[in-house]
Amino acid sequence: MKKIGFLLLFYLTSRAAAFAVILNVGLQLEPPNLDPTSGAAAAIDEVVYGNIFEGLVRIDKDGDVQPGLALFWEVSTDGRSYIFHLAEGVKFHDGSDFDAEDVKFSFNRARAKNSTNAKKYIFAPIVLIDILDPLTIMITLDHARPDFLFNIGLGDAVIVAPESAAGNAFNPVGTGPFRFKKWVRGDRVELIKNDDYWGLEPRLGGATFKFIPDPLSAYTAMMAGDIDTFPNYPAPENLFLFDRDPRFDVVVGLTAGETILATNNKRSPFDNILVRKAMAHAINRKEIINGAMFGNAAPIGTHFAPNHPDYVDLTGLYPFDLGKARALMKDAGYANGFEATLKLPPPTYARRTGELIAVELGRIGIKLKIENMEWAQWIDQVLRNRNFDLTVVSHVEPMDINIYANPNYYFGYDNADFQKIISDIDQSTDAAETSRLYKEAERKIAEDAVNGYLFQLGKFGVWKKEVKGMWANYPIRSNDLRDVYVEGAD
Amino acid sequence: MIHYILKRLTSLLITLIVATIVIFLIIEVVPGDPAAYMMGLSGSTEAADALRVELGLDKGALERYFSWIGGMLSGDFGISYTYRVPVSQLIGERTLVSVPLTVYALILSTLIAIPVGVISASRRGSVVDTILMGVAQIGVAIPNFWFAILMVLVFSTSLGWFSAVGFPGWEAGFWVSIKALTIPAFSLALPQAAILARVMRSSVLEVMQEDYIRTARAKGLSQRQALIRHGLRNAMIPVLTILGLQFSFLLAGGIIIESIFSLPGLGRLVFQSIAQRDLIVVKSIVTLLVMAVVMITFIVDLLYALVDPRLREGGRG
Hints:
By secondary structure, chain A is α+β, with helices and mostly antiparallel strands. Chain A contains 13 helices and 19 strands. In chain A, the strands form five sheets. In chain A, strands 11, 12, 13, 14, 15, 16 and 17 form a seven-stranded mixed beta sheet that branches. A four-stranded mixed beta sheet of chain A has the order 1-10-9-8, covered by helices on one side. In chain A, strand 2 and strand 3 form a beta hairpin. The two termini of chain A are about 25 Å apart. Chain B is mainly alpha-helical. Chain B has two domains: about 70 residues, no CATH class; about 180 residues, MetI-like (MetI-like fold, Orthogonal Bundle). Classes of the chains: A alpha+beta, B mainly alpha. Chains A and B meet through helix 5 and helix 11 of A and helix 2, helix 3, helix 5, helix 7 and helix 12 of B.
């Protein structure tokens, strides 16, 4: 009898322990703050998106729009107005109620004059926000915007409460399945399960996001078992060690990051399309992917995610051909080549890719001087002052081909035909037409060889075999843990 | 003695004032704008401008210098641009990791180095001496980041005795925290211990040649007694100098070790802040580090005076 009692006790305590399973998640970058509606840092979304904060709609692991705080919605036939029907009985983590007022507040805050929302443009098309009743809200746009629903699913458009919005940077209060517990700056952020969550109960008891900046330390921490999952492992060079180890699963997926050899189209000689075409022919994507990413990346021929249904494979448009490249250089009047600088931001992918690019372009006489810089310097010189010839960078925003329509963007592509295509996309209400236009846009920038299109940045997921439900891809930067569980723990 | 202390204090103050001006000027000319950094690749210029006003970056340089100094004097270090919490809070949290780590490493390195140095010196030329100094030579040559990685691979990855990364925080318990700091402290301490042991050895050897040791021996003391009673105290002067330098070096130089072990210390905070252009944090920490180094030098100067009475006498004259 005593023994049974003991076993029962053991069973009960082990059940209790199982329910409280806390997942240790490794991330390379620590977020500067925890408010996804403030700065642009992807590291913020990697911790809070879907976990602490939710939007009207939610982007899922495939990049599709799913119901979020709005359970369903109606779109008017002209595509201009949306009526969102909100979930009932939703509470913020501080106990306050969620209703249409919070939606109105959040959107008005994001589009206000003094707003520091990095993606203010999402809200620019909004002309009217009408609260029809506490759980129904109508949003009217200037004209139909096919990407509006996707955009309000981003971290920049999550719903916050007027009572707590100001403190979200350090004490985030959302409606999500996990609530904020504490942040030890420089070390970790702890989340615990939200017992009052309005949706499906999460299966984890909580999660601890640990920040490990050094790639080698990421390796040792995984191997020592300190970390259960590293959703975006920073060192592709030692992935094979995890692949061989029976304790781990390795899942190589894709991010929304198009890695490009960004080219200053306003500066000579890169304003000459022949030069840009010559460069396109001189780039050997396979060599770059193998050399810089250890084979773990997908080649791209334009600025579009290859796993998107509207992607057109244009990698064969300017195949690797040094003969053609040299002939084009000669036609352009640079038979003897020229000198230029290549400014590289800090990420490893950029530095490694840049070194290979310098070798490859060297073959057709373009002598590149590499300048390594920090992000702050890069943003200042390249992005803001457009003081650069070439750079390597990954554009991690999803569906961002429209940046080519902005003639003042750093690579300076000013093409009326392309701008027309993008404004047509903005006006289009027909899905098939939108899809056709996207394909046209992809082709246009590839033909003009605006930038060198290299590869889609991979997402290297490494986790213990028992951890299930982690995202394989990063359609947006998020580690949504609502469906994650540890096998054998519940 | 008082004159000596006053002289030291004056030079300490001047150093500090000059340091704040230099730090402020250097940070003024550093390229890169914190607001633009925070907005990233896709951020609008409009939002960055709004942020710049919010952070007070639109004000003039002189105004910012004096409000910074004035704030620091009253204990207000300002609000971090990126973290949006008071800088003093950030520094306070980090100091609770960096200072214990430094002290721990310093204690370890002293505990290792002084006996090694003394034993080596007293058995000069023996096999023991050769082995100890050989190991010390290797210790000097090994970079501490490499040694740290080696320690992690052995004690964390293979043996599983320690966590490879992170710091639980003092509220999680004293011994748990000490345990988390042990491998980092060893990694920091070993190369320092090697240097210190060599200094200790040559210092002891030198002292043992002195006339007063010969006199002590002539009075009938054994080699060992002479060393302990008269030698060690004199041999400590160069060792103290090195220890003072090492404390500063360890405090400011913990950055690599802190990165390898993902410890939330001051070094990593500085590094992160520089990358993110959180200039207000950089300014304050660098100033505090300068202050710490100057203070330590001051304390070491006082200790000299304690071990070496001539300095005290000299002060009067």
